[in-house]
Amino acid sequence: MTDSSRQRDAAARRRRTWLSVVVVLVLAVGVVLVVREVRAPADPPAAAATASGTPATVAPTTASPTTASPTTSAPTTSAPPTPAEPAFDRARLSIDDPASPWVVVNKARPLAPIDFAPADLVPIGNGYQLRAEAAQAMDAMIAAAAADGLTLGVQSAYRSYDYQVGLFDAQVRRFGEDRAEVQVARPGHSEHQTGLSADVGGGGCDIESCFATTAEGRWVAARGPEFGYVVRYPDGAQDVTGFKYEPWHVRYVGPELATELQRTGVTTLEEFFGLPAAPGYPG
Fold first, then answer.
1. CATH class of segment(s) 127-158+195-273
2. Positions of the region Disordered (predicted)?
3. Does the pLDDT at position 69 exceed 70?
4. Which residues contact 246 (CB under 8 A, 6 or more apart)?
């Protein structure tokens, strides 16, 4: 082999050696780049823009179909509050004026004037009279009871001052003053004189305590307030009203007050209006 041949072979071997080195280096660099790509997070848009020198355009983020959007609840509509019923106005009508349907007369509260006489009395049959409003209500109550198969009748109604004088004196002569004052009011202290009270009967019992046990008596106690009538002298209230139990004695006060008394369970006008009890006459 000549020297020139040997030189050519040596040069070829050097080229192959360098080529092998270059290939190895290229492969190594490629591996490094792949590893970095796998390990390193993607550059944020701002960094990419800085690196390239071109302002980066950030695309608006669009929620994917699987991303839940905020739930917008429909406004809850609640029922409007029920307005509270106004308190019963106990001062709406006078309890002192004898012409008022709310007048309270008892042993401690005489009528003023003491010989008061109503100006609007009307007949209700059998020679009896009541004030016009009370008479109309009495007719309606009797008719309603009849519709329920019951028979109510008026046994007494308006009594004048002079009539009460004679009645009271007769009771005193018969029973003595103490007993008479439990059964009959003195003149000027009687509810009958107002033209707003009546004695009713039916069911085979008139102006007696047995009226409370009749169908008519029970009906009057329960349904009377619808027509403005209350049992004025209830059982167990003699120490308040001054009179023994009289289930037959009804007093017209108007449906508004009568139903309020029934609703509250207050059985006497004295207690309802906060008046002193009147078990006896003063002095």
1. alpha beta
2. 43-87
3. no
4. 199, 209, 231, 232, 233
